[in-house]
Fold each of these.
Amino acid sequence: METVVHLSNAVAVLGQFPVLAGASLTVERGEIVLLQGPNGAGKTSLLRLFAGLMPLARGEGNVLGFDLRTNREAVRKRVGLLGHANGLYSDLTVTENVRFWGATIGASESEVGAAMTRMGLAQRLKDVQVAKLSAGQKRRTALACLIARRAELWLLDEPHAGLDAAGRDELDATLREATAAGATIVVASHELERAGALATRLVEVVGGQVRESQVAPDGDNRSQAAG
Amino acid sequence: MFRIARLIAAKDLRIELRSRVVTNQVLPFAMIVMVMFAFALKTDEVVEKVAPGLVWLATLFSLLILVQRAFAIETADGATEAMRAAGVDPAGIFLGKALALAAQLAVLEILLLILAVVLYNSKLHAGGVVLLVTTLLAATIGLALVGTLYGGLAAGVRGRETLLPLLLLPVVAPVLIGATRATEAALGTSGAVVSDGWPWLGLLGVFVALFSVGGTLAFGPLIEE
Amino acid sequence: MPDTDTSAMQLTTDQASDAARSAARSAASSSVRRSSPTGTPFTRVLGIATLISMALLVLFGLFLSPEDVVQGESVRILYIHVGTVWVAYVAFGVTALASLAFLWKRTTSLTWDRIAGASAEVGVLFMALTLFAGAIWGRLSWGKFWVWDARVTTTAFLFITYIGYLAVRGLGGSHQQRGRRSAVVALLAVLEIPLVHFSVKLWRGLHQDGSVSDTTKVKLHDLMLFSLFISLIAFTLLFVWLVMHRQRVLAMQDALEDKGLDFALEQRRSEAGL
């Protein structure tokens, strides 16, 4: 199996604070990894590191074969990050937003349409300005932008937050489809049941480091108690 | 790079068309500034003499606000970071935003020129039109380039509202000097003739050349973490 | 497991700085009996050379050199003014070159970044002195504090640009970030300053306002030339001495922060119980 992410004793800083204090993690293609941990543990920073946004202060890391120390730009084009903010333009409509983000990697009109349909935005909401959407609808729009970008590695920070039950089901289905099509997903979430059911592997992030969970996610025997 | 630039310029202009912040807020601001200048100066003759300078000063002050606005739409929902995360070519972002800014600036300057004719009694004449138009073009592009460059640096850092003027105004001084002198020549203010203006246009051209190259190279490192 | 949040982050950082500070202090105090924290034999010699040349400058500038035919005693300000303006521009050049060097081989040499910063700080100081002394001299010589010619105006712009550069240095973030951002700003200033100079020159050139800069033509007697020469040497030595010390202080500050990081790393690790 191909290694998509390999991190070894990574240290990353925010100002002078070490948000990641020696984190090690390996992710293979097609996995759905759930990051769990208390607030401030470093889950968001881990995702941003994988996205090529944060510089690596110490340690080693590569994502999709690119070294995080030297080649972060190459990582970014192939990775999709959904952070706490949505990255949307509030004066533009849903369609315009998804089209814009898709166009940054040259996605076609049909791919944009497909992304919007997948997230349930293609009918009633497509010409509504983002400013007028609810928080959950904005989140779905942001996800559609992500889908339109055809990322190989998906990094999602609390993606279920703000979504209603139907939205969450859509999201889960989308994630499963994405891995079936060859993508790899790393999710940070506090929602153990839903995300746990989805994930192939559970990982704990605490004190800026990573600890594989000893507990298998519900009803899924594929997690390993790792060293 | 150019495809991204077109995409981003189109996006910025579409947002402006939708939100109308420039037309509803920045243009009135510029108009008030022009009126205030007249209040501050004593006689009509003085005002008429310095009219070109006042137009460009008003442009510069409005530039500060336009640049802040151009980046506020990005930082509002983390879009700059999203663009970085998406690996969008920074040079493309730079050119695209500069293009959109230039378009907005151009509209502003035309309005200010009209105001100068109305409020300050400036006179346009046929011989100076070519010089006037080319000056507008060159100055607008130059201002848009450095505005986008330093705006990108200042966006998202603390003290951004005060940092931007401090960094930007010294840099645009040559544009102020050059554009004002060229405009004076084009309008025939204070006895200047059109031929006086061309060397100044050359200066503006050099400015544009230097900062288009310099800005394209520098923008990426400046917004990077 | 403790539920950490941002205030805990702040606490850790503060504790880290405190610990690192006391460690550095004890290290420094043990060596302070032997030498100063930033002094080395080289800078000591340099410092003495600076003092000697400054003393010579005072001697020649104030006493031995003659007064000017036209300007009288007020020409003596020139000895300071020329020295400071020379240093101000040298400082600008050093900052620009050091910024270039930093960007050239980035990941290994924060020293270049610190040299650029130290040089800029010293440069701002000398630029302020230049403008001040120049204003006094102008007032004494031809009754005006300021003149709108290319050299004076460019110096004023350089002053403001430096202040902006120092503001950018103070924006925070990692040391690498600071270095890269300010290096780019410094190099942009290299583009900007000649443009400003040229445009002001063109501007004033076309307006022959009975230019007062003509009266800066001072007839230079041999001894005056010699005093000017001493001034250049003395101020250059002073500049180098100041920049070296300041660079070392900045290095110590950076090292302090790095030590703080190590400490904070330990704290963070222990919070996990790993």
Note: The CA atoms of residues 25 and 196 of chain B lie 36 Å apart.
Amino acid sequence: MFSFISKYRVLLFTGIGTWLIYVAHNFSIAYRLQANPELILLQEGLSDLTLFVFYLANILMVRQIMNDQKGRNPADMLWNVVLTGIAGAVAIRSAMFFTAPYEGTYLELFTHPFLDALRMYVFVLFLFTAIYTFKRFIFFINSKQKNTLWQVFELLMILGLLMVFENPFYIISDYVKTTLLLLTLGLILYFCTYIRWVGYLTFKQKLNTIGMLFLNIIMLTAFSYVEDLFSYSISSLIHEFFFYKYYLIGQAALFILIYSLFSILVLVFNLPTSSVYEQTRTDLASIQKIHKSILPGQAKEGSLRTLLEAIMLSSGATLGWVELEGESTPGIMSGITPAEILELEQSINFRKYALDTQKPYQIQDFNRFFRLKRRDSRFRSMLILPIQTRFADLGAVFVIRDIPNGFNDDNIEVLQSFANQAALALENLTLTEKSIEIERFQEQLAIARHMQEKLYPKAFPQSLDMDIYAHNKQSEAVGGDYYDILNTDDGVYKVVVGDVSGKGTTAAFYMAEVKGMFQSLARTQLAPDEMVMNINEGLAQCLDVGSFLTLTSMEINMHTKTARIVRAGHCPTLYYCAQKDTWHWLDKGGIALGVIRNATFSNHLVMEEVEVHPGDQFVLFTDGIAEARNDAGDEFGYERIKEEVIRYSFESAADAGKAIINCIEDFSGGYIEDDYTLMIIRLK
Amino acid sequence: MNVTIAHFTDYTRISISGDLDANSSVQADEAFQKLLADGVHKVHIDMSDLNYISSAGIGVFLSHQDEVHQKGGLIIFSGMNPRVQNVFQLLGLNAIFTIVPDIDTAHNLFSKHS
């Protein structure tokens, strides 16, 4: 809401305003001291009221400002309080100095109330700044219960504030005052158990805070009537301090005193163990650093160096180096040279011990167990930490200290966790690199698939002569089935359906070759058997040993009304003769391509010829269809193919084709494992 | 898939049982290669316990057939079940492989051959 400066301005304004009102009223009382008794009472009552307003306004302002402040270092916040105190003390002391000359004169009537009021003003500011600062400490960790109890505390203080209205006509019993005091004390002691913030300070910060707290306590006495204190006995001091006007101040001062003393005690007792906590925090920060040091694209060296530094920092080691599996020389070194490492290794075969165990290995004192070639005071104890994941050994970290038994078990656990973190990060890096490579390969595969897609005919020659349907599916990204149909000369159709042995990329390459050859040969006048012979020759050189290729090459000539077909080792073609209304397999002879790679191949080729008429049908497919298996292991088989084809023979070629494929997919449990092709040709 | 090898005076018999698919054909191929490396080129493939053969399995025999032929050797298949036989027939492999019904016929053929 308000900016920092303006808040203080408002505070000052309110404070001084209400204080002036109070002072002015007290002057007026002092001046009219001889006025009648009723007026005196009224004036005293008003005086109490102004005091009440003064207290309330200032406390609320301080409370508001303090609650709005952002968290800072405890020592800094306390310093703020001390400054307030110093300012107040200076104000008081100078005021006392300047009014001293008027002691004993009638002006005393004015100076006393003035000093009194001033003292109360600075005291209130100081105390409540301190209280709300301490509140932040107590509320370091928040809880509902704490919140409620703080509100109770504030309530007790409000009750204490109301004590201001005590005057000769009604006395608040000592019983009430004592009870309220005890309740306040009880709550204060309860709040004293909330000193967890102490644990989070470093050693230096703890010292600073102790200093600040002491100063605060001293400030308490600065405005107090130190000189007067010694003249009072304890009981009258208490009575004086808890005199009605000062009751609230008494409560507040009690809180500050007790909490400060308690915190000082706790801080002092926690000084020796500061280093443990600091060490843990540094170690945690180191793990974070190591974790962050491996980013994609970062060199390994950077992260290994971070690891070595973290380990050396945490363990107090003076020398160290990192070795990676598969590298003969240490990658990262600190404080030691390769020659020295070699020399050390020659005297003590520590490596042998390191490799035998999968856990951290210590050599506690070089002097005791081994004879060094030349004693080096820097080498006294050594720790070897494996850098490994569950699956792989990546290397090890070696660190040396110049004192014996330099490494303790607790610390070694932490150090090993550093090494494990680094190992995970390194592994991550490798995996990332690999997966990038795999992604590249997959891209290439996708391109191959795309290219192969293009090799299949996009559309079939729309013709008045026939109704054609063809469908192909590959089991992997790219496959070895092939089909094509060409209408070279209006009325002469050249068809091929083929299947390369094997699957995948190799098969796809051969398939592409066959397409090329078919497309060129089909544009010539060569008969199907001549075409097959040429393709065999063309492939003879490049087909892998042991690879072969089957295909059916067919030519339908609408002028001569004949179809010629060559089955080169391929599945037989199903043929329907409309005139005779018969279905039979065109399965004469034949040999696959690549089985015989010389001229004698042609001896084994057989070409069948049939007369064709409108209504005739040809169904070609690859063995993916015939060999589709169900759960029992039965193959779909030629008989079933024939049955299904006949069943759908009156549908259009496309509908029949889709229905037949659905049927086969159902048979084989939802999808067909192999590459498959189905082609249906119906003469109109 | 199991491969058993038996040596005879005139020839060596490889008995293959089970399924000869893409995975198991590697094993069969290694066995065959080893035989050839040892100088054997009269090979009897006993398929009486062979259930199924894939194109990879066929590839194994095709790939070694040239070498055997060049060395004046001979490969004889026997004991094929109808399904395997059908595969061989469809592909037209009868043209280059000698296929006989049973072991004895094969044995006799080898004796005659040498």
Note: Chain A touches chain B through 21 residues (CB under 8 Å).
